[in-house]
Sequence to fold (976 residues):
Amino acid sequence: MSFYSLDMMLSALTEYNPLMPTDQFMPWLRTRREAHRFTIEQIRFRDLKDWFFEPSSGNLSHCTGRFFKIEGIWVETNYGCTARWSQPIIHQPEIGILGIIIKRVRGVLYFLMQAKMEPGNLNMVQLAPTVQATRSNFTQVHKGLKPRYLEYFLDGSRSRVVVDILQSEQGARFLRKRNRNIVIEIEDEIKVGDDFCWLTLGQIKNLILMDNIINMDARTVLSCIPFGDRGIENMEYGEAVSRAMSAGSRHTEGATVVYNAFCVQLFKSALRTAVSVHATEDIISWFTDLKFRYILEVERIPLKHVHEWVKTDEAIVHRDGRYFSVIAARVEADSREVPAWSQPLVKPREEGVVAFIVKPIDGVLHFLVQAKVEAGNFDVVEMAPTVQCLTGSYRQVPHSSRPPFLDYVLQARPEQVRHRTMQSEEGGRFLNEQNLNIIVEADEAFPEQEPEHYRWMTLNQLQNFIKYNNFVNVQARCLLSCLSFRNE
Amino acid sequence: MSFYSLDMMLSALTEYNPLMPTDQFMPWLRTRREAHRFTIEQIRFRDLKDWFFEPSSGNLSHCTGRFFKIEGIWVETNYGCTARWSQPIIHQPEIGILGIIIKRVRGVLYFLMQAKMEPGNLNMVQLAPTVQATRSNFTQVHKGLKPRYLEYFLDGSRSRVVVDILQSEQGARFLRKRNRNIVIEIEDEIKVGDDFCWLTLGQIKNLILMDNIINMDARTVLSCIPFGDRGIENMEYGEAVSRAMSAGSRHTEGATVVYNAFCVQLFKSALRTAVSVHATEDIISWFTDLKFRYILEVERIPLKHVHEWVKTDEAIVHRDGRYFSVIAARVEADSREVPAWSQPLVKPREEGVVAFIVKPIDGVLHFLVQAKVEAGNFDVVEMAPTVQCLTGSYRQVPHSSRPPFLDYVLQARPEQVRHRTMQSEEGGRFLNEQNLNIIVEADEAFPEQEPEHYRWMTLNQLQNFIKYNNFVNVQARCLLSCLSFRNE
Fold:
């Protein structure tokens, strides 16, 4: 690894791309959607092929014992208002690979992205990392094709590692699930498959401004790319900003890059030299204290021992219809490693909201980060967005007991909204799940004083915590990936 | 937190202490040993008071369900040569506090240390942190006295936090056990109890040069203190070294401070600006890859289902007499929260070895760090010393199959040995356990090329990984605490 920060910034500021001109991307994606036949239909559990409820436990498992299982957990905690409960959860102890190949062409880094079908995807095909594979995939349990380009990630001699970190998945749905988020640079010539294309980071960032185009796996990998360290760590604000911006202007080939005040703020916040409200050691101490105080005991139990959940022929549902349900689906897709299969999927009750509130403090943009305990967390507490309501039915809750800052975010004036899209969760496990992703700049009146479970952090601090695994949760990471350093 | 690095360095270089002159410390410690009556005797399990074998599981538990339990684990892994085994393990899900209070007196930081009796201690009394308490201690399950000075750690308003990190304990003996390692600075006048004294870091470092004086809990807390960051991060080597050293000389009150070449090397290695063989991101990638490749499945099982271990009236032993045994002891100690009690203790088979090999590479001292999988690890792999043989009977193993680098360390010439002491493990759980702690400087011929599970790191990189929890294991941390920046 060498000095990637400026290179990444340059790619993020570049939209000109002779390999895939921006105006040709959506037609290309449409072609990919039309090139393959995809169907998905909900079926009864008994019609699942190769999946069955284990007689002794009631767990929903694959006949090989691989992929994932729907099991139960029993939770006891002193965090929040529910002291103990049981729930179904996805248990998938394997670490998967979410990998992006990048390549330098005439000084600019390009990302090899895949138009990938997942059964739960809205629009069926979204833009995914180069490789997205569970261990069961690439050890070929299902006897299908090996994922393309996988060999670059398994054989380190063919590439240079840029990012390589284990990152968590949704703690409310998965039990301590983690994936390897990896970005590698290659120099080889590489044959670009029909479902693949090279994009600049700037193009990808623009596509995240649209609903449900860039899938969750791509967003989490992108969030691990550091902008503020290595190579620009010793520069002053002004110098770093102007160097990045002049680099950006050079690569627009004629078009004018307009940097609004927010982008400049954002960039400053990404630099290591940014002055922060809290020292990193103080944030670690805050986190240590929360892990010390909150007890989270999670015990795996047989699915049939889960209380308050009911199994019908077609779904496992909460008795009051809350949270999510588990259903079964049959999928046909001629573009995947195996052409047809059936599998369980998790279907959310309704859309959720994930939001960051940001605010310039002492001239540097800060993010209001929430410490959140979730049952499936690897280490009790993770750093979450300011607002994260995924599984609840927050609309029906009276204002007085709604999550902190939710109303502030939903009632933000248009000029405060820095980002607002609908983004999908992982389509391999979740059926048509999308959540409102929103970044709101606080107004002057918004207090700098933090509630107990919240801390203001710079983007550089967040990116540093992302570098060490198990700090920043998947919702926060994916929302950070929506940040764009150019905004016209 | 503000700029502590130079302050810590200054304290580490200071031996002059009007509060506890160096030549009075050992007599004082002897007084403390003699001031109290301590007895420990091994008893039969049936004579344990308040501890019993649970009928259904065979687990050895306290009647309140608190403190700790001796349970079983079943382990499956693809690391090492044993693919599956079961063993007894200490299960103690509570996070304890290991806390040191420091105070600035005429510009120098002093550490409040406690002469503390633990039943398993060699010499019965060793020097401990100010507070060493499990949650059961300070929620007073045993209805004894509250640990002294605890209130400073529970009420943040009375102190300034210097270090506050969760750190792991022995992965071969404890199941995912962690403690809060915390150092706080106070300004209050504080009444110093009879068993307590103020020492400079330099005095403590000198005491670590003697066998079994500074207990394990103190050593792990001391290892968390950063020397190379904050306040000196932007200085050049020469400037930082000479500033620290001239500060050291000022505070010896007449005595000459001699810095040998190794101390200067060590100090350079502690600085953030030290040039390292591997970028930190590359080390994280190496660790990610190991966590990805090594499967470690650990399941809690009833103690009575553990294979190859036998329970007698007096001990739980491995059928071949290997590893360790679990025994019962009755303790009387008038200096503790409760005057008499009985408890299980873990008794090691024999002494072990922990060793770092260090080597200057490109002018900067590097430590050869081992990635080690242990069953009780919180996250599969932790960074261990170059050599760590605790539970094995390494002397009986033929040379060809002995752990890497063990022979090199044991056969090092005297002029290569930078540190060599016997140090104790935690006397609250382990009976008379001591291990050889040794730091060896590699000779010219020692290869820079690393085996797969080893990486060269600077002291600054190690201290950075210590800052984020669950990277550096307790043996490595304690061995690092033995490093002294002055060496006459």
About this structure: The longest helix of chain A spans residues 22-35.
